[in-house]
Automatic annotation (TrEMBL):
Residues 18-459 form the Aldehyde dehydrogenase domain. InterPro entries: Ald_DH/histidinol_DH, Ald_DH_C, Ald_DH_N, Aldehyde_DH_dom, Aldehyde_DH_Superfamily, ALDH_KGSADH. This is NADP-dependent aldehyde dehydrogenase. It comes from Tenacibaculum lutimaris. It holds the Pfam family Aldedh. Keywords: Oxidoreductase. The keyword Repeat does not apply.
């Protein structure tokens, strides 16, 4: 049941007078529930509870944290149709998408549960003492990862479940031993509250400390700003726009104690179409990319917003085929009137740039909040000289850049801002003839796809969902998969400590039976 209140630890609270409602973009009307904006008092209470909870939660065993994470997954599933219906009413997304995203969210939680139950993720590293070493004795050093402290997570507009209240950032932080305060996204506050209730029930059932999780509502930016600048907050997770992520990064850097902000932000995800592939598969590639560009109304951070090819008949044929196939797809609903408003504004700004040509757009009338897909094209030189053309148009929009030659293609890639993904479409092993192009692409992206589409992010240990700025604020980390836990920890060493007071992970007898590096050898054995 949705109350419209804030979860401050295990308790519901609504102290403030400022309220707001979510919006149903499919029906083009407000939803009925009223949500209370978090007050300064509620913010302070949530952070203070998290800071107090951290003292206990950081020491809780991996087995018990796994029970907590699995219980969250169970409670989310128990929400059943109420969650699905609320998700759809607040996003305009179909039921199938809601159920798929719920499945992904549950899978993420259970994956982290398995990770912390095993325990090897702490990367225990032991270098035993050599007291008789000449000329200087060697100390006993033992290192492992430890949690940072309370983490603030911002919900994402385009993934009300998988990147929001109990999404990847929250799951990873809880797995690491960090209490979490979620700043719920105002577009899906009802969905967020339902998920928050599931987390609180799970915390109570598994006897986690009060304050291990809180959920705060806010329709504006003030609550988020206050959370990021609160001295007891130790890290921030964000998925959203470059403007929003950069603002949080700057706020965190200006604190008396700067803290890390792990933000996954904008990306246009360049796709390189090599000539032989275009010659042999024009129509199939056009069909594949028409569907990828319009998937989810283009509201994915991995949407293929930029297609690069060598000027000529093959690329011209592809552009014409893409134009034909993309207008055959019926437009779909965007997440919110503000989202489609931004899409229309950014699309207009792009179309007003000198040298950009509109190839096609869906011209039939559409329902309110439904976005008409667009394909544009531009000469390589024009694209190089106009940084405005490099900006993301969030929605079903893509630009084809016609490059004069391989050298210009490489130059364009090298001058792109950092991206989440890059894709190479190749036939007959032709990709081996473009080593410098591929090297340039590798330097600008976090993941390269071969003969596929960038839309779709698998949750697994080898996934990298990040990239050079502004794709993310720290390209050394992924925001997806169990390795994303590394964002919420820091390495810590013990020197010459007595064995009996070391953490379980570092004791000679290895009571947890985890995989450790001992004097350079990976082993689950004891130190004799």
């Amino acid at each position: 049941m949705i109350t419209g209140k804030n979860y401050i630890g295990n308790q519901l609270s609504a102290l403030g007078n400022k309220t707001y409602k979510t919006f149903n973009p499919e029906l083009n009307q407000e939803n009925k529930h009223v949500f209370s904006e978090a007050t300064q008092e509620e913010i302070n209470e949530a952070v203070n509870l998290a800071s107090k909870a951290f003292k206990k939660y950081r020491t809780i065993s991996g087995k018990r944290k796994a029970e907590f994470l699995n219980a969250i997954a169970d409670e989310i599933l128990a929400l059943d149709n109420e969650l699905i219906q609320t998700y759809c009413s607040e996003s305009g997304l179909p039921e199938g998408r809601a159920k798929g995203e719920r499945g992904r969210t549950v899978f993420q939680l259970r994956s982290f549960a398995d990770l912390v139950k095993d325990g090897s993720w702490v990367e225990a590293t032991i270098d035993t003492a050599i007291p008789n070493r000449e000329p200087n004795p060697k100390s006993d050093l033992r290192k492992m990862n430890i949690p940072l402290g309370p983490v603030v997570v911002f919900g994402a507009s385009n993934f009300p479940l998988a990147y929001s209240t109990a999404g990847g950032d929250t799951a990873a932080a809880l797995a690491a031993g960090c209490p979490v305060i979620v700043k719920s996204h105002p577009m899906h506050a009802g969905t967020g509250e339902l998920i928050a209730s599931a987390i609180i029930k799970a915390a109570e059932k598994t006897e986690m400390p009060n304050g291990v999780f809180s959920n705060l509502n806010s329709s504006g930016i003030e609550v988020g700003q206050q959370l990021v600048t609160h001295p007891k907050v130790k890290a921030v997770g964000f998925t959203g726009s470059i403007k929003g992520g950069r603002a949080l990064l700057d706020l965190a850097a200006k604190r008396e104690e700067p803290i890390p902000v792990f933000a996954e932000m904008g990306s246009i995800n360049p796709v390189i179409m090599l000539p032989k592939a275009l010659q042999n598969r024009t129509d199939s590639l056009a069909n594949t990319y028409a569907n990828s560009i319009t998937l989810g109304t283009g509201q994915f951070c991995t949407n293929p917003g930029l297609i690069l090819g060598l000027k000529g008949e093959n690329l011209t044929n592809f552009i014409n085929s893409l134009a034909q196939k993309i207008v055959e797809i019926n437009p779909s609903c965007m997440l919110h009137p503000n989202i489609i408003g931004a899409y229309e504004n950014n699309k207009t700004k792009a179309l007003n740039q000198e040298g950009l040509t509109l190839v096609t757009t869906y011209e039939e009338s559409t329902q309110p909040n439904y976005a008409a897909q667009v394909v544009t094209t531009v000469e390589g030189k024009t694209f190089l000289n106009n940084p405005n053309l490099h900006q993301e148009v969030f929605g079903p929009y893509s630009m084809v850049v016609q490059c004069e030659n391989e050298e210009q293609l490489e130059e364009i890639i090298s001058n792109l801002e950092g991206q989440l993904t890059g894709t190479v479409i190749s036939d007959d092993n032709e990709v081996v003839n473009y080593p410098t192009v591929i090297a340039a692409l590798q330097n600008r992206v976090g993941r390269i796809i071969f003969n596929g589409v960038p839309t779709g992010v698998e949750v697994c240990p080898s996934m990298v969902h990040g990239g050079p700025y502004p794709a993310s604020t720290d390209s050394r980390f992924t925001a997806v998969g169990v390795n994303s836990i590394k964002r919420w920890v820091r390495p810590f060493s013990y020197q010459d400590w007595p064995n009996h007071i070391l953490p379980q992970e570092l004791k000679n007898e290895n009571p947890l039976h985890i995989l450790r590096s001992v004097d350079g050898t990976l082993t689950k054995g004891e130190i004799i």
